[in-house]
Amino acid sequence: MKPSVFLTRILPDQVMAELKRRFDLKYNALDRPLTQPEMIRGMRGRQAVISMLSDRVDAEVIGSNPALRVIANYAVGYNNIDLKTASSRGIAVTNTPGVLTEATADLTWSLILSLARRVPEGDRLVRTGRWTGWNPTQLLGMDLTGRTLGIIGMGRIGQAVARRAFGFGMRLIYHNRHRLPDRLEKKYRASYQPLSRLLTAADIVSLHVPLTHETRHLIHRGVLDRMKSAALLVNTARGPIVDEKALVIALKKGTIAGAGLDVFEEEPKVHPGLLRLPNVVLLPHLGSATVETRTKMGFIVIENIQAVLGGTRAPNAVG
């Protein structure tokens, strides 16, 4: 018999076909996240569950299924899973690292460029019929050449963002929990800075840290107050890293010039103050949203499940 798997959201076609070929697959056909009772019912008796970052896999969910052997998260992050409970029950937890690095770095630069050149504002001007023709002072933005990019979190994604800065002739500074080896600093032409100094020096601050107890609301009112008034903030990491209430206040007061967000504190809910601001670009969590990346993520999930159910350690085990 094929191993039994429950999938909480439909994945790209190629992945779905392979899941059905290899497993006895049960999946959520609704185009929305499941409620906790729905998830518990769906995964009942299943050996594996494929969860999304938006799924809260807590102690109650995990404890509801004695047959469960592996939780395969379709994401790099796994703060949505109760690792302690999973470990105590001998349940493996896996993720999909590495594969979405380049796509997320590309999206980070999409936000940087959109903010620096005020692309969404220009698009709205044209679409609403308010554009009256070329104007020498219309929607003036920021040159990137010669500016300072500050990266907070120089892991895989942070380093991929850094590589892309070369082509824009930018100065690169970074802050990380651990300083990079000299060879990597030379490779990325990056200068390590304490967080306080990075905030005062950077024209653009880009966030690439995981969500932990220490990084929750890392960007708060005091941090925003240290940034340049012309600075831009970009977050493609995790929503709760930024205190959205403080960010709205800072943007309204002109403490910083703009923000680009792909993630939010209480997804899919967005702070209403952000929705009303013209100097903000808001995206619906598109970091890994390319056909190639999402398909690769699915095949990593399959490899992880097969390894665990086959009696070996998963290639991407966490915890």
What structural category arises from helix and sheet content? Answer: alpha/beta
Tell me roughly what share of residues is in helical segments. Answer: 25-40%
Please state the CA-atom Rg, rounded to the nearest Å: 21 Å
Shape, principal axes of CA atoms: globular
Number of helices: 13
Uncertain stretches: none
Following the backbone from N to C, one meets helices and strands in this order, namely: EHEHEHEHEHHEHEHEHEHEHEHEHE
Report how far the terminal alpha carbons are from each other: 30 Å
**Can you summarize the main beta sheet?**
7 strands, parallel
Mean pLDDT: 97
Strand order of the largest sheet: 8-7-6-9-10-11-12
Q: How many strand segments?
A: 13
DSSP strand content: 15-25%
Keywords:
single chain; 319 residues; alpha/beta; six-stranded mixed β-sheet; 13 strands; globular
Q: Secondary structure elements and their pairing?
A:
Blueprint: E1 4-7, H1 13-22, E2 24-27, H2 36-43, E3 48-51, H3 59-63, E4 70-73, H4 83-88, E5 92-94, H5 101-116, H6 119-127, E6 148-152, H7 156-165, E7 171-175, H8 182-188, E8 190-192, H9 195-201, E9 204-207, H10 221-226, E10 232-235, H11 244-253, E11 258-261, H12 272-275, E12 280-282, H13 291-309, E13 317-318
Parallel strand pairs: 1-2, 1-3, 3-4, 4-5, 6-7, 6-9, 7-8, 9-10, 10-11, 11-12
Antiparallel strand pairs: 5-13
